[in-house]
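=== RUN LOG ===
request id: a7f3
mode: sequence -> structure
chains: 1
length: 1137
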Amino acid sequence: MDTADALTPDPGTEDMFRVEENKFAFSPGQLSKLLNPKSLHAFYALGGLGGLEKGLRTDRKSGLSVDEQTLDGKIAFEDVVPKGTPKYGTAGDTVPEGRAEEALHIPPPENSYLTGQFADRRRVFRDNRLPDKKTKSIFEIAWTTYNDKVLILLTIAAAVSLALGLYQTFGGDHEPGEPKVEWVEGVAILVAIIIVVLTGTINDWHMQRQFTRLTKKTNDRTVNIIRSGKSQEISVLDVLVGDVMHIATGDIVPVDGILIDGSSIKCDESSATGESDLLKKTPGDEVFHAIQTHGAEDFEKLDPFIISGSKVNEGTGKFIVTAVGVNSSYGRISMSLRTEQEDTPLQKKLNVLADWIAKIGAGAALLLFVVLFIKFCAGLPNNHGTPSEKGQEFMKLFIVSVTVVVVAVPEGLPLAVTLALSFATLKMLRDNNLVRILKACETMGNATTICSDKTGTLTQNKMTVVAATLGKSNSFGGNEPPLDKSVSVNQDAITIPNVTQTEFHSSLSSEAKDMLIQSNALNSTAFEGSQDGQNTFIGSKTEVALLSLCRDHLGAGPLQEIRSSAKIVQVTPFDSKYKYSAVVVKLADNKYRAYVKGASEILLEKCTHTLEDTSPGGPSVVPLDQKDREMFNHVISSYASQTLRTIGSSYRDFESWPPTESASGEGPKTGAFDAVHYGMVLIGIYGIKDPLRPSVIDALEDCRRAGVVVRMVTGDNIQTASAIAFECGIFRPDEGGIAMEGPDFRRLPEEDLKQKVRHLQVLARSSPEDKRILVRTLKELGETVAVTGDGTNDAPALKMADIGFSMGIAGTEVAKEASSIILLDDNFASIVKGIMWGRAVNDSVKKFLQFQLTVNVTAVVLTFVSAVSSGKGESVLNAVQLLWVNLIMDTFAALALATDPPTRSILDRKPDRKSASLITLGMAKMILGQAICQLAITFVLNFGGKKLFGYDNSEHDSKEHNTLVFNTFVWLQIFNELNNRRLDNKLNIFEGLNRNIFFTVINLIMIGGQILIVFVGGEAFKITRLNGKEWGLSIGLGAISLPWGACIRCIPDEWVAACLPAFVKRWWLSPPEDEMGVEKKGEKDEEEEFRPPLRVMSSIRGPRAREHIGFRGRMHRVKDKAKETVHHEKAKKEGRD
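=== RESULT ===
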């Protein structure tokens, strides 16, 4: 055993190893090494069960003393561990300094720990309580929602606008009958802010309350422990390190520990570690003895570890507690979830945009103020007004200058984002995505990588018989090619007919079905029970798979009836030494039949006969010759190469029981079964696996098409994980993908870690900390990371990721609380729908931004130019007209553009990286192009309209002229909104319009609103009614937006990029160096370091499989040879020509 590295502190856990005045031999950190992941090296390094008992100052028989308070003296680490074991592994005798960013914050213990019962024990190891999580009040949530740069910029604009509006309303001059509405714009902006904050606050508060109710299901329950030699019930919250706890079938384990003794204990750890099968637990002393003597051939498979969050499926026993509360596996996972939510990529980009808008708006306002101020000063000698009038003129030019800032701010942008997210949330619920955190939708759209759990997410977490060979009669399934391409299986050597599963079952005689049912139902420790409200089998997942086959396909009745109607005379439980279990039953003819089930290769060696004809008429038995034996070995190898777990089944009839050759001293009816385990009849060989979910492969292909890299992260061993990942298309070693194990992964230096992570596709034997390291590293590399999972062990990564998907059916409460989106149907394919809606949200925001910025750029330039050119310093569009264009229309446009549903084609592009600019080159091209078009039309109408259309200087004609300018400007926006339905350079802007009724209805409302304003809004808007010719002119000029937009789309983006200065290209279009590094893969590195071949079954079949490992190398040689041949043929052809 390697004790030199067994107790080395993992990065971020150094605080657990530092304990002042420790009166025990071990610190919480050293004990945590037992389970991070499970480590027999650490178990041995701590001195086994005896070392733990002595080091924790407890007694395995009598437990802790109820009289214990403060402890006298001190137990030295060196006194209880094997000689030469370093206290902190490779760090020697001192705890290394940790990196602050990796450390998990855990509040210090309360002062009450320092006195009273078990004072020293609670001070060092704490009790089984987690610190209360502080929930936010509705006002704190509202403040968090409001702390957004765009909203703060809007608030400043609203305050300035309201202040100036109030000044104009109450201090300015007004013509008779003119409405005093200058204050309306400021109030309207504040209303928009309030709507956005309220929407976000109410949603987040509702979700917080819902999940607070979920987690308040009381965790306080009682458990049985031994203290001062007596069993007693105490609250689970009062369990301490060193306690001896009883466990029994059905218990959920609340703390970590090491098994002292027990009877046939098997635990389901799928929610805690991701391990899909039941794990048999071995007492700590047996494991320690096996390690010392090397008597057990496979001692690495022995498991004395009891892990918090797991469930006891079989057996009873007791264990010594080694970690509680914040130091237990479950506790550290729960504490790691208590982190603040980060800004989403879109939020960060909008914050940057807000900064730029503020700077550009302020710059334009300052420039306008300087120009107007110079103009004002130049006119002062000829200005004969009173000082008060001059002051009013100065205030007017100041107001016009500040209006530029207000016009530049995109008031509708936060509303557009909130509306798009809310709409997507409702639609995603129909697609089985329950969105907990509103902002998660848009983040998912640009996810660049998904770190997926295996068990229960990609697979069904339900062991199933997917292949079977019934004697020489027939078979179903199991005829797929080997997953490891370097392993060859001769399928021609298998002559047994292969049919569909339905044909297989229908071809069986009733006698054959009865035999299969009896062999599986009687020789099994599983039982029928209720789980999650459904009747199911409970027990070993392998046995459950065989019993499910009998019930679902062979017509088996209730399990209890089958067992009660049989006369069972002897049961031989499964023994890892012999690798089989057996049951002997008395038949109706007073003979006896032994059914055996176990490792297929071992059972095959014991068989001399097999079934041949299982069709109606009864199964016939024929001898097994050498050729048959080789064929069945091929079947076993074929199943194994497809990563199926193979189980053999056989039987033998006896005249009496026990037979004379097996009589043992244990009783007259008990036989030493191994003595008669020969001359068996092979019933069949089953192939069992945890199958992939039916839609997973298609969903993964969609992810690949969308440019999203999927990585598998699992607690399984590397062979199984690699094989499953290879089967579903995640692991692609030929493309440079690598598979690693958690303990190796977490110890990589920072630079190596970043280099390896780029190519990592499978992370096996991973602990929760490994998943967190993987997610953190990917985020540091600029990736937008999604994590899927259903178990408690997935929670830290779910929380740290940009987006966390938990499973609604199989997911634990901890996983659901840590996630942003819950998959209600536990289907990986729903994630693809999440990606599509996420991209639709991002596109909606970009469409609206493209529309809004076009309006804003046009309005700012219009205000600037018209104010400078006007003798009165007034803008083309007055305040109320700007209010309609700049706010009301923006709200409608936000609603219209936020409701476009996604199409499948949305997956045909790569995701935007976090560093990608919010405004793309194509968007900038359209914004500037449309702004130029709108400015040209508006300037021509404003400055040349009177001459072109024969307006005179009368008040009516001036109003009509202004109305024409205003009406045309609004129609330009309406048509431009239609133009903004596309972000790419394709010309069909009407695609999918028939599927979005919202867009049509909202545009009709906008058109109706504009018609009403022109006909009845004369006083408020300072306009008059237009005739038919002027309406036709307004709509016709507005419609120019559409063909002009098509012309802009015909200009390639590359041409626009070529016109940009080099520094702009570098700042705007170039990705950061660390992201470019992902694309630049060195051929040599790929060859030598990142492309190990898939070794699926090499550990099972040893050297025979390893001879075939060089598959990739052979393929390269074949490709090179093919290239040379083609080149040679081409040269010969040219020579002949």
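=== NOTES ===
The chain has 41 helices and 27 strands.
The first helix runs from residue 28 to 32.
=== END ===
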